[in-house]
């Protein structure tokens, strides 16, 4: 019977495999949201959903996409498992974290998917422990599939180099919007701005920052340069202490 520690450990193992094959480079970010601990109650379940959402959406989007493409090409059942699990996690997170009063097609789909999952996995009356165990087991199965797919992708010397090169090119060329949030927050703090809306600020500037990032070969150097540019821009607009 799977629990959260099994899931967390499996993702850590995947991170270790990837880092070793990529010459020590870490391509799965550390997850910093609160961990589910203690009794498997409603709060535990909410934390588990939040952790799984971050794992699927935020910490390794490009490697996950690359592995998903391989799974889709070679394992139809495995690909359905991956897609359905991601969809369920998204729906459960949306149901718990967003106002879904507006009757849009998307909202109704999310509600229906989440409610159907609770009925199928939580039982009647609803058991939070059953929900936690079921979700952990499903996510664990997906992470194990990703691990097997990674090992298969790097097993052949002929295919390994091309796969890893393409993966790194995709990672270094991808700049999701949230990747700049820390730089904006750091820049705002450095000039004394308080309660600054990082997301609102980046909305109209994200494409320009991506163009600046493309000027650099090294991702870390690019981020340092962009942080400097953001700081200068904020000083121009708001002044500094």
Account of the protein in words:
With 241 residues, the chain is an all-alpha fold. The chain has two domains: 4-173, no CATH class; 177-238. The protein is built from eleven helices and no strands. It has helices at 4-21, 42-57, 61-74, 76-97, 105-122, 128-155, 157-173, 181-190, 198-203, 206-213, 219-238. The N and C termini lie far apart (57 Å).
Quick rundown:
The protein is an all-alpha fold.
**Main pleated-sheet profile:** none
Classify the secondary structure makeup into a structural class. Answer: mainly alpha
N- and C-termini, Cα separation: 57 Å
Cα gyration radius (Å) = 20 Å
Helical fraction equals over 70%
Order of helices and strands: HHHHHHHHHHH
Query: What is the beta-strand fraction?
Result: under 5%
How many domains, as an integer? 2
Number of strands: 0
What does the overall shape look like?
A: globular
In the predicted model, the low-confidence regions spanning at least 5 consecutive residues are: none
Q: What is the average of the pLDDT values?
A: 91
| SS element count, helices | 11
Short key terms for the protein model shown above:
single chain, mainly alpha, 11 helices, 0% strand
What's the SSE blueprint?
Layout: H1 4-21, H2 42-57, H3 61-74, H4 76-97, H5 105-122, H6 128-155, H7 157-173, H8 181-190, H9 198-203, H10 206-213, H11 219-238
Helix pairs in contact: 1-6, 2-4, 2-6, 3-4, 3-6, 4-5, 4-6, 8-11
């Amino acid at each position: 019977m799977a629990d959260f520690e099994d899931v967390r450990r499996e993702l850590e193992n995947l991170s270790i495999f990837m880092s070793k094959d990529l010459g020590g480079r870490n391509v799965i970010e550390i997850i910093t949201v609160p961990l589910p601990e203690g009794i498997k109650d409603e709060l535990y379940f909410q934390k588990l959903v939040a952790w799984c959402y971050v794992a699927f959406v935020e910490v390794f989007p490009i490697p996950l996409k690359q592995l998903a493409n391989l799974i889709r090409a070679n394992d139809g059942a495995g690909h359905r498992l991956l897609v359905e699990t991601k969809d369920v996690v998204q729906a459960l997170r949306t149901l718990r974290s967003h106002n879904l009063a507006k009757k849009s097609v998307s909202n109704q789909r999310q509600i229906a998917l989440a409610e159907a999952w609770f009925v199928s996995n939580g039982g009647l009356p609803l058991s939070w422990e059953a929900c936690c165990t079921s979700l952990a087991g499903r996510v664990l199965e997906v992470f194990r599939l990703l691990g097997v797919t990674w090992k298969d992708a790097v097993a052949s010397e002929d295919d390994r180099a091309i796969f890893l090169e393409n993966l790194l090119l995709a990672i270094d060329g991808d700049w999701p919007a949230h990747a700049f949030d820390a730089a904006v927050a750091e820049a705002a703090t450095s000039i004394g701005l308080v309660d600054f809306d990082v997301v609102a600020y980046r909305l109209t500037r994200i494409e320009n920052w991506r163009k600046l990032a493309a000027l650099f070969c090294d991702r870390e150097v690019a981020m340092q340069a962009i942080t400097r540019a953001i700081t200068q821009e904020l000083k121009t607009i708001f002044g500094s202490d």
